Amino acid sequence: MLKGKTVVLGVTGSIAAYKIAGLASMLVKKNADVHVIMTQNACNFINPITFETLTGNKCLVDTFDRNFQFNVEHVSLAKLADIFLVAPASADIIGKIANGIADDMLTTTIMACKCPKLISPAMNTNMYENPIVQDNLKKLENYGYEIIQPDSGRLACGDTGAGKMPSEEVLMNYILRTIARKKDMSGIKLCVSAGPTREKLDPVRFISNNSTGKMGYAIAKMAMLRGAYVTLVSGNVSLEPVPFVKMADVTSAQDMYDAVTECAVDSDIIIMAAAVADYRPATVSDQKIKKKDTDMSIALDRTKDILGTLGSSKREGLYLCGFSMETENLLENSRAKLDKKNLDLIVANNVKVEGAGFGTDTNIVTLISREETKELPIMSKEEVADSLLDYIMEHRK
C-alpha cells in the first residue's frame, strides 16, 4: 500500500520512543522506504541500531556526521519525504519547530520539508496542558502541521491524564490517510451501508443473515483514504471501526432505512453493501406457528425497500449503487434490480462461487450499469472496493 513512498520518522526524548520501533516495522511491511531521525536525548531511550536494523537505512542523529554519501543530508531527505511524522514529540521539539529553531538534524530536516508534517505530542499532563505548549501547537497548526491528539491514561511518570502517545496502529492510520492513495474523492460525501440487520421475533429470537460487513467496511476505508467524507451505516458486526469516518451503528432494517435516508439528503454517492434481513415483525397479525408444543406468534412483513425508496425519488447528482447477491441467473436478476430500483450501478456476485460471498477476505464481482457489464477477477475486498470506486468516479456525472 505504501510502495514507492518515503516516510521520515522524527523521534525525540520520551519513554514512548520504543513504540516507534513497532511503527517502523509496520511501515516496512507495507513496502515504505522508512528513514528515522533521532535527537540526542532520544538515544537515551532507544538505540539507533534498532531503527537501522528495522529499516535498512542509516539512522540520523548528528547534523555534522560525515559518514554518509556526499550530499546535504537534511536537504536531500527533505526532498525525498512524502510525509514527516514526529512521534513522540516532546515539548522541547514542539517549541523549537514552532519558533523556527533548527539546531539539530531533526529540526533542520523538518524545516526543509514541503511534504505533509504530523506532530504526535507525548509528555506529562501538566506539561501538555501548559499554555505555552498549547500555544506552540496552535502555531504549528496555523503553519499547516497536523497535530495528533494524545490519549489520556496512566503515564510513565505515574500521573493520569492527557499526554500519552497513541498506539502504533493509530499513528499508522494517520500516515495511510495522508499518503496511501490519491485524493481524487476529496470533497465528496459518501454513505455506505454494511453488515446484517436483525429483526426481533420476540425478546429472545431474531431473524438475520450471515453478512460480516467486510465488503462495506473495505469500501468505507478505501473511500476515506481517497479523501471522501464517509458515513458508514453498520449493522452488528465483529469488525474494528473504520478510522476517520462517521460511524452510525444500527440494528434493525428500519434503523438502517432511517440512517441511510437521512444520510442521502446531502450525499453525493450512496453504496448499499448491507445485507438487510428480508422480514420484520408486523404490528398486527394473527399468523401462528407451532413448534414443539409452543405457540409462537410471529408476524412477518416485508421490510422497507431502502434502495427502491432512494431510487424512486433520486435527485440529480446522486449516484446510487447497490449490491446483488445471487445463487442463480446472476446477470438477469441483477439487471432487473438495476432497472426496478432505478440504480446507476449494481455490484453482482454469486455466493456459491469459491472466493466470493459472506465472510471471505476476497470477492468476485460483476459491475453492471445500463451501458455495460464489467467482470472483475478474484481480488481482495479492498482491491474490489478500489476498483468499484474507480468505476464510480469515472462514470458519475
Question: Can you offer a commentary on this structure?
Answer:
This protein is α/β, with parallel strands linked by helices and 397 residues long. The protein has two domains: 6-179, Flavin prenyltransferase-like (Rossmann fold, 3-Layer(aba) Sandwich), CATH 3.40.50; 189-395, CoaB-like (Rossmann fold), CATH 3.40.50. It has 13 helices and 23 strands. The strands form seven sheets. The chain has an eight-stranded mixed sheet, with helices on both faces. The chain has a five-stranded parallel sheet with strand order 2-1-3-4-5, sandwiched between helices. A two-stranded antiparallel ribbon has the order 6-7. Helix 12 links the parallel strand 18 (319-326) and strand 19 (345-350). The chain is elongated.
CATH architecture assignment name of the largest domain: 3-Layer(aba) Sandwich
Number of strands: 23
Number of domains: 2
What structural class do helix, strand and pairing data support? Answer: alpha/beta
Q: Identify the CATH class of the largest domain.
A: Alpha Beta
What is the tally of helical segments? 13
The span between the termini is: 29 Å
Question: What is the fold named in CATH at topology level of the largest domain?
Answer: Rossmann fold
Strand content: 15-25%
* Widest sheet: strand ordering: 12-11-8-13-18-19-21-22
Morphology = elongated
